[in-house]
Amino acid sequence: MLVVTSGAVGAEGLALDLELFLSPREFTIIPERDGIPYDGARRDAGIAGQRVHGILDLRENRSGLYIAPMGALMRRIQDPGVWEKGTLNLRSGQTMDPSQLLMRLVGLGYHRVERVEGPGDICLKGSVLDIYSPGQDPLRLDFFDIEIDSIRHFDPETQRSRETLETVEILPASEDLLSLTRLPEFLNHLKKRFTDASEPDWWDDLKNRTLASGLDPDLQFLAGRDISGLEDLLIDFLPSTALLDLFPEKPLVFLVQPEEIEKHRQRVVTEFQTIYEAECQDLMVAPPETLLEMDPLQLEVLEQDEGSPSSALPENIRSMFRLTEDLANLDSASDVQRPLLQAATGFQGRISELRKAVEDKLQSGATVVLTSPYHAQIQRISGIFRGEPVELSVMEDPSGPLEFDSTDDAANASSSGKSSKGAKAKASGQSKGKESGGKSRKKDPAPVLYVIQNFRNSGFEIPELNLYVWSDHDIFGRGYRKRNRFKARTSSPIESFLDLKEGDFVVHINHGVGKFLKLERVKAAGRERDFLVLEYAEQDRLFVPLDQISLVQKYAAPTEKPRLDHLGRASFKKVRQRVEERIEEFAEELLKIYAARMSRKGYAYPPDSPWQEEFEAAFPFEETPDQITAIESVKQDLETPRPMDRLVCGDVGYGKTEVAIRAAFKAVMGGKQVAVICPTTILALQHFKNFKERYSDFPVRVDWISRFRTRKEITETKEKLQQGEVDVVIGTHALLAKDIKFKNLGLLIVDEEQRFGVTHKEALKKMKALVDVLTLTATPIPRTLHLSLTGIRDLSIIQTPPRDRRPVQTYVMEDSDTVLVEAIQREMERGGQIFYLHNRIQDLDAVASRIEQLMPDVSFTTLHGQMDEDDIENILLDFVNRKYDLLLTTAIIENGIDMPNVNTLIVDRADGFGLSQLYQIRGRVGRASRQAYAYFFHPGKHILTEQAQKRLNTLLEYQELGSGFKVAMRDLEIRGAGNLLGKEQSGDIMDVGYELYIKFLDDAVRRLKGEEVPSDFRCAVNLKTDFYLPDDYIPDTRQKIEFYKRFEAAIDLEEVEALAAEMEDRFGEPIGPARQFVLVEKIRTLCSYAGFESVFEETAGVIQLEAGEHFRIPPEHMIKVLKSGKGFRVKPGKSDTLYFEPAEVIKKAGLEERLAAFLSTLVELTAPLHAQKEPAAG
Predict the structure, then answer these.
(1) Which CATH architecture is the domain 809-960 placed in?
(2) What are the backbone dihedrals phi and psi of residue 1012, each rounded to the nearest 5 degrees, phi first?
(3) Residue 383: DSSP 8-state
(4) pLDDT score recorded for residue 40
C-alpha cells in the first residue's frame, strides 16, 4: 500500500500518527529530494540517506505500507542495484584496511570531517573510524591493525560510545553513484549530449579522477553529493527507473487531499521547465522529461472531472477524503469489518468537561486513551486525573505500537446497540504502571485511563469498539508544533577555547594579546613536547608548553582586530592591574545592590493555585529544559518576601514570552496588577496578542496602550487601571507617563530594556524600586557570565532551541533571475513571506524595479534606517500583519520581533558582509517548524575576493544548529555581555578579552563573598620521556588542544582517568608518547594536589620532588611513607625536597614501568588527602 501526500510536512505528520498503531518496521517513509532543480547546491546527507534507506526497503519489500510526497514519486532514480553493490556489511573480527574502507566510504558519498556530528560524516582518527550512516545512530569502528576489533554506537553530542554490535550494515550516503570504471564513458556522453554548453567547474576535477590501488574497481564509486549539479546528469546517463516501478505489484494507493497533490505536481513540472528553459543554452542541464515522471499517478483526470475526486481516480487509487465510501470498495471479497473512525471530541481547554467525559466513558466500559508527544504534557494530563476515581496507566516513550483488541462483547454491542466493554490497549514501552487516582475501593476496582506519550495530530473515536483516543490538541484546543521525525543535525555547545584555530587572537595572562600561529612539536633537553606558538608585536614569538595552557585564553571582544602587545614590556601588566582594580570596584557595587535588594521587604505571592496549574497545563507545547528552569526560578522569586529582579535571556522563539505570561498570571492570581513595557509598538502588539490568547479561558483582563489606539480608548484604559479593572496592561514607554496610575501594581515586565532611551531608563528605575521586576532580552549572553554572577545577579538563560527548529537550507550562488523568481514563488505558494536584503540605500529603487519587472504580482515594500521611526514601525507592522509578501530592506531587519511566517531570505551582494553579520542575518529566518531557505547571491567567483569566498563557504559548511553557528555567534554574545555589564566594563573586555575578564570577575566575586578562589597552581613536571598527543592519534589540532586543556584543568586522579577513558573511546588505545602523556598527567595531577612545586628526573628512575607553599601532606604520614621502604627518601639539609628511587629491578625495566611504579607510590603518598575529600564528596 502507498499513501501519497502533497509535501514533506504531510508525509512526516502522517508517519508520526501511524506510530500509535504500527511499529516503525511496518511502514516506511520515502522523502523527496531537497533543494531547487538544477541549483547545484550540496544536498542534505540526512535526506539522501533516508531516501536510500526507504527505496532499498521498497526494493526488498520489507514494509507493507509506504508513505511518500508527490515530489518523491516524480523524480526518477538510479537503478537501486548500484546502491546495493555499494552497501557494506561489516562484522566484528573482519579483516579490512581502515584507510581503504575510508576511501570506499568517500566514494559512497560520505564527507570527511574532523568530528562526526551529522548523517554522512566520517572521520579516521588513528585506529578508530567514526561513521554516521543514514538510518541509524553513528558508528565507531575500533581496529587492531587491519582487523575490526569492535563496533559500537556512539552519541554524536558527547562523542562517547554506547552499546556494542557484532554486525552492521552501512548504506551509501548519496543516491547518485557512478562506478569510476565508467567515468570516461560518462564524460564522453556529456560532450556529445551537450555540444554547445560550457564545461562546468568540476569538469577538470572529474577528468583527473583515477582508481585507487588496492581496491576492487567495481567497488570504487564517484558520489554526486559534493559535486554541484552532477546528480541530474547521472540520471541522464545511467539506467533509471520510476519509484512506482519498484513495487513488486501494482500498489493500492491512497491520496491525502488529491487536489493539493495535483497542484504540487503541476508546480514541480512548471518549476523544472522554467529553470531548464532559462539555463539549457549555456549549461549542462538534463531536460525535465529525463528527470521526471510527469504524471506518475495519472492525476490530470482530476482537472477534467466535475464529480467527486474519488470517482475520477484510476482503479487502484483511492482518495482519503471520502473514507467511508472508499473503504466499502477496497475489497468487496473481504469480510473484515472496518470500524468507522469519527473525529475526536474537542474540549478547548475546558478541563472540567474533560473530567466528566472521561468518567462517563469509563463508567460505560469504554477504553479511553489520552496522548501527547511531550513528557511534560503527559505529566500535566496525568495530574488532572490524580484524585479522580480512576487508575492511571501512564506509558512514556512506548517502544512498540498500541494494540486495540476488540472483545466479543464489543462486537456484540456494536451489532445490538448495547454498550461494549471497550478495547484493550497494550504497548511494549516503558510503562509507569498503574497508579491510583485516590478514590477507588478494593472490592470494586476503578476503571483504567491510559495516558500515553505518542504523537497524534488529532484524536479519533470508534464507537463500535467503544474506543476513544484524544490528543492534547483535542484536550487543550490549540495545535502544537510537530517534532521532527528525523533528528536535525546539531552539535554540543562549544567553549571558545576549544575552537582555537590558527590565526586566532589569544591573551596570555602574563604577556597580553598575541596571535596563535600553530601547535609545534619542539625537542628540548632531548625530549619532544608540544608547544603553543604565539606571535606578538614586532613578530616576537612565545612558546607556551601545553602544561601551562591555562595561562592562555582565546581573545574575544566586540572588535575585529586587537592590537598585539610587546613581549618583555610592562604595558600589559599595567592594563591588567587597572582592569582588575575596576572589576573589584564593579563587583563591590553589584554586591551592594544585591544586599540592598535583600534587605528590602516585598510581597510574597502564595504557592501555585489550582487555576495556575490548569493554566500551565493548557500550554500546548513542550517546554525546553532551560525554559522550565527559568519558569521555576521566577515563581520561586515571586514566592519569597524579597523583591524580584530577574533577567531572562533567550533568542526569539525560545520561550521567553511564556515565562513572562506565567509570571503575570501568578501575580494576578495573587491579587496584583502587571505592567508589560516594550520599546516598540510592534513588540507591544505582539505581546498583547500572545497574552490575550493565553488568558482567553481565564478571568484575566488584558488591555494595552499605544499610538494605534484612540485617545478615548487610552483614557478608558487609564481609568480601568486606576480602578483595578485591568489586570495586565501592555504598552510602550507611554506606560511610564505620570498620569498612569495603578490600583495595586505588583509586577513589572520589561522587554529589551537596553533599547530604551536615558530618560525612560530613569523612569523605569524609579518604577522598579516599588515592585517585582522581570526583564526580557533577545540579545545572547554567555553562560560563563551567568555563572560568574550567580548569587549577585538573578539571570535565567534560555539557550535550548525548540525541538522543532530546523537548520536553514543555505545556498551560495551567482546572482540569477531564475533562482530569485523561483525562491520567491516557492515561499509565496506555501503562504510565507520573504526578506530581500540589499545593504545600499541608494540602490534600493533599482532593486525594487528589478522585482517589479520579474514578478509584477508580488506585493512588497521598502525599509531602511534613514526613514522616520514611526514610518519604520508602520511598515514593519504592516509586514507582520501580512499586508506584503516581501520586504526589501537593508541590514536593519528588526531583532526581537517574532516573524515565524518569514522563511525565505535573499541577500544581494552577500560578499560585502562580515561572517558574524551573515550568521545574524540568516538567523532572521528559520524560527518556525517549516523549512527555511537562505540565498546568498554574489556577482561571480571571478569578482569575489579570497576572504569573501571563504566567508561564504563557511556559511555552507555550518548549516546545522550549533557548531560553527555558535562559534560565529560569540561576537554577539560578547556584545550582549557588554550591554549587561555597562559601557565601562565593555572597555575592559576589549583590553583583556572576554575570557580573561570573566576569570578576573569570577575571582573578585568569590573573594568579596568570602569564598575560596580556585588556585592556578600546577606542578611543573620534567621527566626524561616524550609525552604528547601524536598527529596520527588526534589529527585535528582543535580537538588536540581541547584534550590538552581538559587534562591540564583536571583536579584529581579520577578526572584524569575519566578523560583518558574518553580519549581511548574516541581515538583508540594510546600508545608511545600518547600513553606516556596520560601517565605524566596522572603524576602531575597527584603532585599538584599534594602541593609539590616541581618534579624533576635527575637520572633514569631517580626523581626529585620540590615541596612549596601549597604542600599539604600531613607530617606523620610523610614519616610513615619514608619508613615504608617504598623508594622515598630525604637528604640531610634538604627538608623541602623528596627523592624517589625505585628498586634496581624497576630501574632496569622500561620507561613506562618506571613511571607506573612512581605513580603507584604517589597514590600511597597522597592517600590521606583523598581520605579527607571522601566525606565532602559524599
Answers:
(1) 3-Layer(aba) Sandwich (3.40)
(2) -70, 130
(3) H
(4) 66
